[in-house]
Amino acid sequence: MRQYIISGGDRYYKANLHCHSTDSDGKMTPEELKEIYKSAGYSVLAYSDHNVLIDHSELSDESFLAMTATEVNVEKVGEGHNAFRPCYHINFYHSDPHQVALPCYNKAVWSKRRDLLEIQPYIGTPDFVRDYDNINFMINEYAKHGFIAMLNHPTWSQQTAEDYRDLDTTNIFGMEVYNHDCYIAGYNEINDGVFDTLLRRGHRLFCTATDDNHNHHPKGTSYWDSLGGFVMIRAEELSQPAIYNALKAGDFYASSGPLIQELYVEDDILSVTTSPAAKITLTTAVRQAKVVYADSPHTPLNQARFDLKNVFPGYVRVTVYDDRGRAAWSQPIYGEFSGKR
Prior knowledge:
- The structure is a single chain.
- This protein is α+β, with helices and mostly antiparallel strands.
- The protein is 15% helix and 32% strand.
- It has helices spanning 30-39, 114-119, 135-144, 180-184, 192-200, 240-249; strands at residues 3-6, 12-19, 44-47, 65-75, 87-93, 148-151, 172-179, 206-210, 230-234, 252-255, 260-266, 269-277, 279-284, 289-293, 301-307, 314-321, 327-329, 333-335.
- Strands 2, 3, 4, 5, 6, 7, 8, 9, 10, 13, 14, 16, 17 and 18 form a 14-stranded mixed β-sheet that branches. Strands 1-11-12-15 form a four-stranded antiparallel β-sheet, with no helix packed on it.
- The longest helix has 10 residues, at 30-39.
């Protein structure tokens, strides 16, 4: 029986889940950002300004969703400059675009917009102390009020898989395997190695790719941080509840360029159809990988088949690379397959 993971017959919405405007440290207004992303074919833009939660649903229309979100930062306390300390930066999303009260709120935290912090609605007390070591409590407090979380830019945050060893990921749906702003700023912000380590430890996470755009540099330059990382979301309609449910369920894939047009498993054969690619790889839960290369740059790949009959139990996932080094990442596919240890 054919099991579709990505189906060409379904509707997908292109989305940037991590964006900053003039409501924090971005240089463009929410209205200007809508114009940029909508004109580039995006259907969803999550306005995730730092430590504030602002409803921009007045910008939504029949073909564009202005998604209400926030990015919350937690620094590790210790000696030395903040630049030498690990930190958590976490995006939170709710199914209700009008839910703008922040749990675990502290109006003394960093923000370029002190005026917005002063009037931010909140749940609980206004002086919650965010601490690196109480991150599980904080995420679960958000979850009690209907929020789901995404781990942002592990490389920029100076975190490794060891920092995540005690992290409770029950209410974390995803992790950035690619962050465009950090990547073009010089950080090696391709985090699929950390992602695989967490999966192999039993964490059920999905991978995302985002812009994290601040737009401090002119459009058209190599430093422009919009329109680089995105997710393609399969949802029943263009609404915040539908997008929220799709994120929780993992009904999306991540990309910095290539498209995955179809992906399915049938009779222990995984088949994938893509936009033009230089190579397509299969990553597994163990020390076992497969790859298909294009014959030459002039004859790119657009499909690959992987035999799973001798693949050990666990998960598999597909990565598609184009000739510019950009990638698309499928979600992990779990199964017993037919392999034997």
